[in-house]
Design brief:
This is Tyrosinase copper-binding domain-containing protein. Keywords: Copper, Disulfide bond, Metal-binding, Oxidoreductase, Thioether bond. One of its GO terms (molecular function) is oxidoreductase activity. The model is unreliable at about 10-70 (pLDDT under 50). This protein folds into two domains: about 75-420, Orthogonal Bundle (di-copper center containing domain from catechol oxidase); about 440-585, Jelly Rolls. Helices cover about 25% and strands about 15% of the residues. The protein is globular and about 70 Å long. With about 600 residues, the chain is α+β, with helices and mostly antiparallel strands. The two termini are about 30 Å apart. Helix 1 crosses helix 3 (about 185-205) and helix 5 (about 270-285) runs antiparallel to helix 7. The protein has 14 helices and 17 strands. It has a five-stranded mixed beta sheet.
Amino acid sequence: MASLPIITCSQFSSSRPKTLLSKPSSRPRQLLQVRCNAQNDKNTPHLDRRNLLLGMAGGLYGSTNLDSPALATPISAPDLAKCTLATLPNGQTIPESCCPPLPDKIIDYKLPTVKTMRVRPAAHLVTQDYIDKYNKAIELMKGYPDDDPRSFKQQANVHCAYCNLAYPQTGDSDIKLQIHFSWLFFPWHRWYLYFYERILGNLIGDPTFGLPFWNWDHPDGMFMPDMFDKEGTPAYDEFRNQAHRPGAGACTSTVDLRYNGKDHPKRPLRRTISRNLQEMYGEMVKHSRRLYDFYGAKYVTGTPTNVPGAGTVERGSHTALHMWVGDPRQPNGEDMGNFYSAGRDPIFFSHHANIDRLWSVYRDLRAKRGRPRQFKDREWLDADFVFYDENAQLVRVRVADALENEAMGYKFQKVDNPWLSYREERVRDQKKKPRKAANNVRSLLRKKVSDEAVIFPVKLDKIVQVLVDRPKKSRSKVEKEKEEELLVIEGIEVDTSKFVRFEVYVNDEDDKPDEEADKAEYAGCYSQVPHKSSGEVMKTKIRLGLSEVMEDLDADDDDQILVTLVPQAGGDEVTIGGIKIIYDDVDED
């Protein structure tokens, strides 16, 4: 990663290079009528089925088992006839139903033979010809009758129904289905975008049409793409944060991947970009050496809706962008700021197209290191969902068929991932700066511990600091390659109807860590998009990789670390059950 130039807000330019990706076409397809009545993995068999607090933490505090059963039935596609009114975060039902039209039949989907690869372009690099084609496709989709499953309204409702408790789990009708906060997050959204993209391409008669991805993890794409900000066009949505639109000022219109609901107009642009790259490196590399930490927690039939845990990207940059785009003038942050309404904004699909790209990048990074790229569990591979395809046919799809994007007929325009070299650049820069002697820091940290230890569970309505024992120290490179040192913050109880974010720091020398800086002490975060859970609170945990953090802080020989939890949004709605350090084999998922 080349060194970032020092840029002031007034020097920011909105002009970007353009590339032509496909020829425009506007030929619509004939509308198909739908009556509203009540491929197997080649390598594995298919399961046949239908203020400030200080304290000491020496180990386990209020341990809660948040794992699903070892052997269980995979999540199965919901029965659309059992769809009910979805719920708002306050528990009230959404005025309009999110339920889809009922099908004549359901068929098992078989991926078609790939004849021509679709190319998904970076939204900030597309030409006007591409923008015209995209807007035409969205216009035609919005022109479908509302009860057509391919209409823009119905496509938006797919996210509402699956994500706001409109469906019961198949096999356990007492529990609602939720495809966020678990290992279903990436494959479900991949299938969702797959059919949305095919519907658009079919409408304009272009089988090569690819969705644009919002390349917000690259400095050149860290702003709302111009193609979504032209008022009066089909891609525009009025329910967005007006302070974040292009032209509102570089210091507020630049994406903040650690967004906490507040803007920082005086923060230097260079620092925002550096913080963003730090966040992406943490989500994609530092904190995701184990599959569960990236993909999310196991989720099977019978798993309560309010139990699983989100992976690094979902609870990090994914949530930040939802909240950054959502309109604070609306009661629930509509459109992007709430699950039920997010699909109403066309930018949602480009946001998730980038998340889909990041999944492919992660898999490639794992392959280069000789690590498994996905789970082998049949409970994951055989999970299935239903979507309407471009012919208005309801089809059943499986996770196992969504692992390779090119096998699904699409790839992404090649772009650099500058966050990959973030650590190398960051460590090199830090070596140029004087730091306090390690022994002095350790001595200071121990003096900070008060006589009144934190008693867990503790409410996160103020900064919480606690010393945590490290069962192992001074580990060799071989040991670190085999086992990841993980900081586990568990027994997290949170009100799901609120936007919540807190950050975690390790061995920070300040009572109040500087959230403006891209500090080496920053270890990660928890955040969530507001939604309605089947319970009053969601019970979850997060795991943060420590191996690199300890190396970068020259603290590998320490027998304790100081963990600082900094509430940034909704902290009074969060309770922490305990903090501990564990060691997990990086290949045992």
